[in-house]
């Protein structure tokens, strides 16, 4: 894998800095205890120039995650949104992945220690998260041996750094076994989500997806697809789903800011449907990516040009 090419500029605690100058102390609370919250946001090329997809919605969720973890963020939403736009402009990117995040910095050393809250926004170019061919041909997935956390243990509704230790176990196990991604069950034994993606199953032309009570993050891409589907006459059903439905559905795909809409052609070595992306998956890809090339009207005001 080629070395990542880091961009020149980053926003850190209210200032635009050189990437290499945006540092934090090795004894920062967030590094030791996972006490950070973050977002992943994409900027796409559009006929009207670069546009950030659902910028305000993503950053509102960042503040909600911080509230769950009792982190008082030192900058307001307008400042954070402006910082996201500025780092893309300063790095002269037209397609980009944005990472706004906040963490407990250097202060006390106990779990409940009071510390300063640091914030930053990074951006870089990111292609398809699960591989160049994944959006077109799909991936092979497996059900992980690792389950998602039980209710009232870790809040799955927060996009917090520590939560993603679970996703790391799931993703790394899948890669080690030769699969493109892992799928997690909830503590109930019912379906939850992927390592870092939400799930949609298709039965008889209708979309079925697991509810937020299934230890999953209520993804903004998930919400976008539910909205686009309903706008275009595709039925959407949120319900508990057992594992075996992965083997019985007509189509299956993962979604998320990084993964976008990634079809799944097999699970645990069992072919899903026809073994290739189906018509509902393709239609949703057309509707979603059409937002950025003008084929799909932006009726909900999701695109924010720079």
The CATH architecture of the largest domain can be given as Alpha-Beta Barrel
Number of domains: 2
Strand count, sense and barrel status of the largest sheet are: 9 strands, mixed
Q: Care to count the β-strands?
A: 17
Structural class: alpha+beta
Form type: globular
Question: Can you give the helix content as a percent range?
Answer: 25-40%
Query: Might you state the CATH topology name of the largest domain?
Result: D-amino Acid Aminotransferase, Chain A, domain 2
Q: Mean pLDDT, as a whole number?
A: 96
What is the chain-wise order of helices and strands?
EEHEEEHHEEHEHEEEEHEHEEEHE
CATH superfamily of the largest domain: D-amino Acid Aminotransferase, subunit A, domain 2
Whole-angstrom Rg:
19 Å
The share of residues in extended strands comes to: 25-35%
| Spans of at least 5 consecutive residues with low confidence | none
CATH class of the largest domain: Alpha Beta
What is the rounded distance between the termini? 32 Å
Counting DSSP H or I runs of 4 or more residues, the number of helices is 8
Structural notes for this entry:
The protein folds into two domains: 9-125, Aminotransferase class 4, branched-chain amino acid transferase, N-terminal domain (D-amino Acid Aminotransferase, Chain A, domain 1); 132-293, Alpha-Beta Barrel (D-amino Acid Aminotransferase, Chain A, domain 2), CATH 3.20.10.10. Helices cover 26% and strands 28% of the residues. The two termini are 32 Å apart. The chain has eight helices and 17 strands. With 306 residues, the protein is an alpha+beta fold. Strands 8, 9, 10, 11, 12, 13, 14, 15 and 16 form a nine-stranded mixed β-sheet that branches. Strands 1, 2, 3, 4, 5, 6, 7 and 17 form an eight-stranded antiparallel β-sheet that branches. It has helices at 29-33, 55-68, 77-90, 134-137, 164-176, 220-231, 245-248, 279-293; strands at 9-12, 15-18, 36-38, 41-46, 49-53, 96-104, 117-124, 139-143, 181-185, 191-194, 198-203, 206-209, 236-238, 251-256, 260-267, 270-271, 303-305. α2 (55-68) crosses α3.
